[in-house]
Amino acid sequence: MQIEEFNTQDRAAAVAAVRPCLDVERWVDEVVDGRPYADVEALATAGQSAAAPLRSDEVAQAMSHHPRIGDRPSGDHAEAEHSRAEQAGVGALADDTAAALRRGNQQYEEKFDRVFLIRAAGRSADEILASLTERLQNTPDQEDEIVADQLRQIAVLRLRGLIGS
């Protein structure tokens, strides 16, 4: 879709278009109600701004749609399609890397009571694994800040992907 089409869609269609980018009601409302946007950059800036900061309940809501790193999301809904594309860099994993990701995911979930989230787009499996290993040393407060930032990065990438240049 082009920015002009997004700007002129009825509200319900615009909400449906951006919700898969970040399923946070306040964020969706701010992005949609900020129309019209001059270009993709203006939209991305608005998306970034609306997601700073994210409250803990908003992070929890947004996280409910994110699969484990290394898992192939199922379904044909927009969130699953985004996740499959974003994790494409993970690709077919060597057995030892896949096992290390599974172990790291389990340790992360036990420590932080949520799935490990990282902007996977543009990162290799080894980079993701290194980040996971490093982040296991964080405190819950440190990790809360990182997860919120990762959600912002993912939302902006998805917004940019939604609107053609």
Instruction: Report the CATH topology name.
Output: UraD-like
Work out the count of structural domains: 1
The fraction of residues assigned to DSSP E strands is: under 5%
Percentage of residues in helical conformation: 55-70%
Number of strands: 0
The gyration radius over C-alpha positions equals: 16 Å
The first-level CATH class name: Mainly Alpha
Question: What is the averaged pLDDT score?
Answer: 87
Second-tier CATH architecture: Orthogonal Bundle
Low-confidence stretches: 82-89
Provide the succession of SSEs: HHHHHHHHH
Could you give the distance between the termini? 9 Å
The CATH homologous superfamily is called Oxo-4-hydroxy-4-carboxy-5-ureidoimidazoline decarboxylase
Task: Please outline the major beta sheet.
Answer: none
- By secondary-structure content and strand pairing, the structural class works out as mainly alpha
Describe the global form. elongated
The number of distinct helices, counting runs of at least 4 residues, comes to 9
